[in-house]
Amino acid sequence: MEPQNNNEQMPQGTEPQTEPTNPTTEPTAESTQAQTEEKVMSDVSEYRTFAILGYILPFLFFLPLLDDKTKNVPYVRFHANQQLILLIAGVAVTFVHSMFLVMLSDIGLFVYQLLGLALLALVIYGAYNAYQGQEKELPYIGHFRILK
Predict the structure, then answer these.
(1) Interacting residues of 54 by C-beta distance below 8 A, sequence separation 6+
(2) Please, how many CA atoms are within 13 Å of residue 123, restricted to the half-sphere of its CB?
(3) CA distance 145 to 78
(4) How much is the pLDDT for 121?
(5) Is 64 in contact with 47 (CB distance < 8 Å)?
(6) Rounded distance, CA 55 to CA 122, Å?
(7) What does the mean pLDDT of the chain come to?
(8) What pLDDT score does 26 carry?
(9) Higher pLDDT residue, 84 or 147?
(10) How far is CA 98 from CA 94, 104, 135, 140, in A?
(11) Higher pLDDT, 31 or 124
């Protein structure tokens, strides 16, 4: 038996058909989504420190918004907004405390301590989400949008 040559089976002058490769084709939706997810993860890892620091010291929420490079990153803007809301809530708690303290001294102190614990829980929740790279709103107060 003689080995068969694949060229003998095909008519002369015909070559196997291959799909032309076009380097100018648009990327697929899957590759675009993968690139977007990679960009988001790099943003998270690069700006995680700013996000966590802003929850611990909410009056520093504006620091990442001063730089042109960071102020357009959605992760940074989301957490800066949450931190600003937390700062406003802290000022409101202090105001409520001073009002209740004047009117009802013992109850005012108790209310202030409860609200202070609630704010501490929100700080821990927000800092943990920032550390995990998640954009979860703070419970009860996080749905407000101040920074757009």
Answers:
(1) 60, 61, 63, 64, 79, 80, 83, 130
(2) 18
(3) 9
(4) 94
(5) yes
(6) 9
(7) 76
(8) 58
(9) 84
(10) 6, 10, 33, 23
(11) 124
- Token pair, residue 7, equals 């060229």
Per-residue exposure over 108-122, b if at least 16 CB sit within 10 Å of its own CB, e if not: beebbeebeeebeeb
One-letter amino acid at 73 equals V
Query: Using the 8-state DSSP alphabet, how is residue 14 labeled?
Result: -
Question: Helix, strand or coil for residue 71?
Answer: coil
17 alpha-carbon distance from chain centroid:
48
CA-angle at 39, arms to 57 and 148, nearest 5°:
50
Residue 30: φ, ψ to 5°: -65, -40
- Nearest-angstrom CA–CA distance, 129 and 138: 9
